[in-house]
Each structure stands twice: as C-alpha cells, then as structure tokens.
Fold this sequence. Notes:
By secondary structure, the chain is of the alpha/beta class. It has helices at 14-24, 42-46, 61-70, 84-95, 110-122, 145-161, 223-232, and strands at residues 4-9, 29-35, 51-54, 74-77, 101-104, 128-135, 180-182, 185-191, 197-205, 208-216, 238-241. The protein folds into 2 domains: 4-104 and 219-241, NAD(P)-binding Rossmann-like Domain (Rossmann fold); 110-216, Dihydrodipicolinate Reductase, domain 2, CATH 3.30.360.10. The protein has 7 helices and 11 strands. The strands form 2 sheets. The chain has a 6-stranded parallel β-sheet, sandwiched between helices. Strands 7-8-6-9-10 form a 5-stranded mixed β-sheet.
Amino acid sequence: MPTTKVGVIGARGRMGTEVCRAVSAVDGFELVAQVDVGDSLDALVEAGTEVVVEFTTPASVLDNIRFCIEHGLHVVVGTTGVDDAALAEIATALEARPDVSELVVPNFGIGAVLMMRFAAIAAPYFESVEVVELHHPDKVDAPSGTALRTATPIADARREAGTAKSPDATNTGVEGARGAQVEDVAVHSIRLRGLVAHQEVLFGGPGETLTIRHDSLDRSSFMPGVLLSVARVRETPGLTVGLDKLLGLV
Length: 250
C-alpha cells in the first residue's frame, strides 16, 4: 500500500502534538514535516508533503490554507473560526486548483458529528431550542465552531418545517445573559478550567424536554476523525465542510 506523506501546521500545539503522535502510529502514513510558529511553510514542500493537517489559530489559518492551495497540497483544517466569508474565499481559490482537495472540520469527534445530525432531526418537533457549548479557558473563539455548525442546521430544519422561533418573553436583563443569537438559536459559551470540549443541545415542548449531549474527555477522542480525514481527503475534490460525507451521512 502506498504511503501518504503528512505534514502538520501547528505541530507543537496541544492538538498538533496529538495529531503528530497519531499519524506516526499508523501504517501507511509518514509524518514528514512538523511546522509551527517561526518555521517556514516551505518545509512542507521540501519534505514532499501530500496532505497537510492544519491546527493553528483563526488569525493564521487563511494564510496557511492559501499557501497549501498554491503549492498543490491537500489540506485538512481543524482550526475553528473559519466563517462563511473564509469558506467562500477558500472555494474560490480552489476553483483555480481542481487538483487540490480541502476538508474543513468544525469537530473531528465522531460522536459530535452524530450529535449535530440528531439535533437537526429533532429540531422541528420542539417549541424551544438552545445550545450550550463548554470548553477550556484557553480556547480563543466563542461560540465554538461546533456550536455554529450545530445551530445553523437546526435553524434550517425548523424553517423548512415551518416551526416558529423559540418563545422568549425576556424584555429586560444584562447584555449577553441570553447568549448569542446564531440563526435565531440562542447559543451560550462557557469557559472553565478542567473542561476539554462539550456541548448540549436542549429542546423543550409542553411537558417534556430532550437533551442531546456530547463530551470529549481527552483530545485523543478527535484522532479517529483526523486520521479518517487524512486518509480520504483526496476523495472529495474541492471544498468539503464536516465529516458527514466521509461517514456516509449525506
């Protein structure tokens, strides 16, 4: 079986370190480049990298992606905070490089992907819905990319079904107390030492509630999704967002 040469940007970060360890342990993958702050991205090209895993910050992710696309490197992006404007720019850049595939993944946890799917299925059937995401205090973006990726399909499903907006009689209060509005869904962000990555989607109707919760207790929980992405990113030409297609959910 041919070996896939893998490079990691953000290799000395918390997630990058875990990715390097996971890639190195898999037959058929060869970790050929580890790049971080202060290192030249040219090291990826010089090492013959085929697939790049990008785990950095929202401030640097677009520049890293641009470099990879320009140099014909397939990219798996785990950095959160890649918004719709950035996705549009990436899609445009890829039009000029049909030989390059890009996979942007808000959450590599298989359970998290299923949680988002279950939430979208449940969304039209309940009067009320809110999202609570809980992360460690070193996370730089809020709401999380997973929460944004959860709220949008929920709102789409409710809109398509003709479900009304969640009722809320609040007319006074401290700013932010009701969370952020993402596609008419209230999203609350908690940052607390001791947490890793957790999310609850809460639904309510007359006489009942439904809570869908996912907990990542260790960063190793994201590695099966990362390795699946590295193995199959070249099967999805252009820009793909999320693991749903790779998991056969769409």
